[in-house]
Amino acid sequence: MREVGTIQSIRVRTCRVPIDPPVETASGHVPIAPLVLIDVETSAGIIGHSYLFTYTPLALKPVAELVAGMEALIKGQPVAPAMLFDMLQQRFRLLGIEGLVLMAISGIDMAIWDALAKSAGLPLARLLGGDIRPVPAYASLRGMSADSIVREAEPLLEQGFTAFKFKIGMPDPETDLSAIAALRRKLGPKAKIMVDFNQSLSVAEAKRRLPTLDDLGLNWIEEPTLSTDFASQAEIRRAARTPMQAGENWWGPQDAAKSIAAGATDLIMPDLMKIGGITGWHRTAALAEAAGLPVSSHIFPEVSAHALLATSGADMLEYLDIAAPVLARPLRIKKGCAVLDDEPGNGLGWNEAAVARFAA
Ligand SMILES: [Mg+2]
Q1: Which CATH number fits domain 7-121+353-357: 3.40.50.2300, 3.40.50.300, 3.90.700.10, 3.30.390.10?
Q2: Nearest by Cα to 67 from 21, 30, 113, 101
Q3: What is the pLDDT of residues 14-66, one digit of tens each?
Q4: I need a labelling partner for 358 at 20 to 30 A (CA). Which of 47, 185, 259, 294 fits?
Q5: If you measure from the C-alpha of residue 339 to the centroid of ligand 1, how many angstroms do you get, rounded to a whole number?
Q6: CA neighbor of 249 nearest in space, from 103, 107, 34
Q7: Ligand 1 center to residue 314 CA distance, Å?
Q8: Per the confidence metrics, is the pTM higher than 0.85?
Q9: Catalytic positions, please?
C-alpha cells in the first residue's frame, strides 16, 4: 500500500474525437465523441484518470467547467470516493443532482477510485472485491441499415464476438425486421442479437411494434420509449415476451430504485457517467442483486469491465470503444471477451499526441 495523500488538484481537458464510422440511432447520429478527460492528482503524486462523453459538443465546455470548479470543494480532502460522492451530492442538493452536475461528480468519482486502486497497488476490479478474468462482451454496432451492420459484423466476428446489438426504430417497421433478418443470416442461429430503439417510439407504437419482434429470438429490446416513463415501460414489458433492457439514462441509484420498483425492466445496464461513477454503480448493483436483475454496462467499456468483475449477476459488457483514439492502451478483446491487465488502477491513460491532435 502506497501513501495515497489527500486530493490535491483536478486537471481537465476536452477533445473532439472523430467516430468513424459514426454511431447512428433513431434519436440522432453521433459523428464526433466530445470527451472530457479528467486527472485527479493526490498530494502523494498519484494521478487517477477518467473521461466523460458529453454526446453533444455543446455540453463539452459546461461539463469541463463543472468538473474544474469542483476542485475547490474536494481539495485537501481524503481520497475516499464514497464519502466525497456523498459530500458533493450534499453540496449540489439545492441545484439538483442529475444532468451535467451528476456527470461531473461521476467523472471525479471514477478518477478518485482509480487513484485509490493505484495507491493500494491493485487493479480496480480487485479493490472492489472481484478477480481479473475475461469479461464477456457484446459488440455494439454503429450502423442501422442491413448492409452496414452486416459489413460491420465481419471483423467483429473475427475477434470472436458471439453477441451483437444494433439500433432500430426506423419509421417503417419492415426496415427493422429486414435488418434483424439480415444480421441473423450473417451471424447464424446461435449468436445473441439485441436491439435498441433509443427511446424513439411512443407508448402506443411500442405496444404495436414490440410483439412483432417476439419470435425473432432477440436477447433483449432496449429503451423503446421515453427512459423516464417507468410506468409505461412496465406496461410495455407486460405486452411483449422479449426481455426489456434499460438503465443507461438513469440519473443515480435513485432512478434505478424507482425503475426497479415500477417493474419497468427485466435487465439493467447502468452508465458509469450517469449512475454516479463507481460509487453510484456499486449502490445500483446492490439494488439489482436484491431484485434478481442481471447487470450489463453502457459504453465506458474500460472502467465498466472492472465494475462488472465485482458485480453480482454480471451479464455483458457493451463494447463500443469511442475513446480508443485518445487512450494509451485501448481495451483489448480476445474471443469476444474484454481482457484486462492485472495492473493497479482502472487501466485508463492518455495517448498525449492524440489528445493534443483532437484538443477542443
Ligand atoms: Mg442504448
Answers
A1: 3.30.390.10
A2: 101
A3: 999 999 888 988 888 889 999 999 999 999 999 999 999 999 999 999 999 99
A4: 47
A5: 23
A6: 103
A7: 17
A8: yes
A9: 167, 298
